[in-house]
TrEMBL record:
Gene3D superfamilies: LmbE-like. It comes from Vallitalea longa. InterPro entries: GlcNAc_PI_deacetylase-related (IPR003737), LmbE-like_dom_sf (IPR024078). It comes from the Bacteria. This is PIG-L family deacetylase.
């Protein structure tokens, strides 16, 4: 039996999941699991001063592909514009079709409370798309598929009410691969408004300390998913 999994990380922008779940994705890719990143917008409106929004979108898509290729994975970028992600059935069913096509075992996405509207929108879109993908009554091109999760990644822009619940180890080899791959994203090392790579490097070390590992990334889950049944104490 094939024990390899497919992990799908769905972000509001290119770079979101690569930062917040990238260490885990890199570690799992080295173990032979399949990695798919999905960005619902390009995240192109954080463009450098000397570059147009349109040109930065092209660059961002190239960066997403480079990151995924370094993890032997695949990157998917939706057509929607940064800051203008709609929450409607068009985008939900589009994502439903991607989930049914790639059949991920696990879905990762944003926590619900965010300072960024695209992140909050992505949270709702992913939950509904997961529901649509798993329900046979919705007849689409691909057969129904139910993926575990979503697991909600830890993001400095999605802090309100986020509590680390599930910790996943980032191996030393995975961390090294992530460091190289995330550097493909211009904003993670050149932004003057936030030290993205530095922040998430330290966060992985902090979460690792909490579970007695070198590095880890933490995720939250729905309250209903925290119920545990045991036969006896």
């Amino acid at each position: 039996m094939d024990d390899k999994k497919t992990i799908m990380a769905i972000g509001g922008h290119i770079g979101d999941m690569e930062l917040t779940a990238g260490g885990v994705l890199a570690s799992m890719s080295l173990e032979g699991h399949k990695i798919i990143t999905v960005a619902l917008t390009g995240g192109e409106k954080g463009n450098p001063p000397n570059m147009s929004v349109a040109d930065y979108r092209k660059q961002k898509i190239e960066e997403a592909n480079k990151f995924a290729e370094m993890l032997n994975g695949e990157a998917i970028v939706f057509k929607y514009s940064d800051g203008e992600l709609p929450v409607n059935d068009e985008v939900k069913f589009k994502l439903c079709d991607v989930i049914r096509k790639y059949k991920p075992n696990v879905i990762i996405t944003h926590w619900k409370n965010s300072i960024h509207k695209d992140h909050a929108a992505t949270h709702q879109i992913v939950k509904d798309a997961q529901f649509y993908a798993g329900l046979p009554g919705f007849e689409r091109e691909y057969p129904p598929h139910y993926a575990q999760g979503p697991y909600y990644a830890e993001n400095w822009e999605d802090p309100y009410g986020f509590k680390p619940y599930t910790y996943v180890e980032v191996t030393e080899e995975g961390f090294k691969l992530w460091e190289k791959a995330i550097s493909q994203h211009w904003f993670t090392v050149n932004s003057t408004s936030f030290k993205y790579k530095e922040y998430y490097s330290h966060l992985m070390a902090l979460r690792g300390c909490e579970v007695r590992k070198e590095y880890a990334q933490a995720f939250n889950v729905e309250e209903m998913s925290k119920r545990v049944f045991v036969n006896a104490f």
